[in-house]
Design goal:
This protein is an alpha/beta fold. The chain contains 16 helices and 9 strands. The protein has helices at 33-44, 57-64, 72-78, 88-99, 115-118, 139-147, 166-177, 191-203, 205-222, 227-236, 239-250, 261-274, 277-291, 294-304, 308-318, 321-332; strands at residues 8-9, 25-29, 48-52, 69-70, 81-84, 108-111, 129-135, 153-160, 185-188. Helix 8 (191-203) packs parallel to helix 9 and helix 8 (191-203) packs across helix 13. It is globular.
Length: 335
């Protein structure tokens, strides 16, 4: 799963990788956040890009951006390299019904995450080259850094390589996406590793942050703090975003020097109190459930049952008093 050599590529070597792509047609399936950004980057880097999308506002957006837009089966038929940039939960059905019957012999399929390929929900034919380019960045960010002549980091992998040119195609696409510009890199990974680190984030610190903020709100308001002051303190002021930027630029603990000494002392002495052995045990169990497919089966059942739990949890979240107070504050702030 892990790459013991920790190979991080920041630039291409002297090989003529572009010859592996030449004038091939690249089909972007799904013109959402990642699809739009990657399509624009690839086209601006000189590649022949078309878009496959259902007839909706995303398709209209692609047309406004100057792309030739086709329904998904037609786009697949025309494409030599296919970027599958639609949501994970609908990929397997779209692949089975619209991509698999129409994909060219010897085509290349590019995933933006490891999920469906790792779990075997999508099993491309043996003649298909399978790649992964998983940006560690929100979709619009992939475009913003490109426009500003900056790069971005991605986990990348070759999953299936029948013609022994998968790595060459992968490196060319990374380069044309703008990955190797200043500040960017490609980390040689695997579909398994990407699935683990991506889902484990969502199942641990990301979810913990949401619900710890709720707990903070409950405690602080019970002790007399105003809802507005609490919400501003937690995230609405934008300070949290600035801290995240400092972590990105300076490192996790090195960014502490941008805080007051009182803040640093509080974080360093009280932070560990919450990370108990029980927390670590829960984290390990979640990692195992990701790798052994337990979560994937659970989520697949949830999809098949009409998202009953998913929708109810969203409704329960909206019922919390913090949501009402957040709406009041954001209306005052013009958001």
């Amino acid at each position: 799963m892990t790459n013991e050599k920790n190979i991080i590529i920041t630039k291409l070597d002297n090989k003529d990788y572009f010859s592996e792509i030449g004038n091939k047609i690249i089909g972007i399936i799904g013109y959402g956040n990642q699809g739009k950004s990657q399509a624009l980057n690839l086209r601006d880097s000189g590649l022949n890009v078309i878009v496959g999308n259902v007839n909706d506002n995303y398709a209209k957006d692609a047309e406004k951006d100057g792309f030739k837009v086709y329904d998904i089966p037609e786009a697949v038929k025309k494409s030599d390299i296919i970027f599958l940039l639609i949501p994970d939960e609908i990929q397997k059905n779209i692949y089975k019904n619209h991509i698999e019957p129409n994909i060219k012999i010897g085509a290349t399929l590019v995933f933006a995450s490891g999920y469906n390929y790792f779990y075997g929900f999508i099993r491309p034919r043996s003649d298909i080259t399978v790649l992964m380019i998983a940006p560690r960045m929100i979709g619009w960010g992939v475009r913003d850094v490109y426009v500003n002549d900056q790069g971005f980091p991605s986990l990348v992998a070759v999953g299936q390589d029948p013609n022994n040119n998968g790595y060459s195609i992968l490196m060319t696409l990374c380069d044309r996406l703008g990955m190797f510009r200043k500040g960017g890199c490609a980390v040689l990974s695997s579909f398994k590793e990407e699935t683990l680190v991506d889902l484990l984030s969502e199942h641990s610190w990301v979810g913990v942050m949401l619900y710890s903020f709720r707990a903070y709100y409950d405690v602080a308001t019970e002790l007399g703090a105003s809802p507005a002051s609490v919400i501003l303190e937690l995230y609405a002021s934008g300070e949290l975003a600035e801290i995240a930027k400092s972590m990105r630029d300076m490192g996790l603990f090195n960014q502490l020097k941008t805080h007051s000494r009182t803040s640093q002392y509080g974080q360093l002495t009280r932070g560990p109190l919450y990370i108990t052995d029980e927390f670590k045990k829960t984290l390990k169990n979640e990692a195992i459930n990701i790798l052994n497919g337990t979560f994937a089966r659970e989520w697949n059942d949830e999809e098949n049952n009409g998202y009953i739990v998913y929708n109810r949890l969203h409704e329960m979240a909206k019922e919390h008093p913090m949501e009402t107070e957040e709406r009041k504050l954001y209306k005052i702030l013009g958001r």
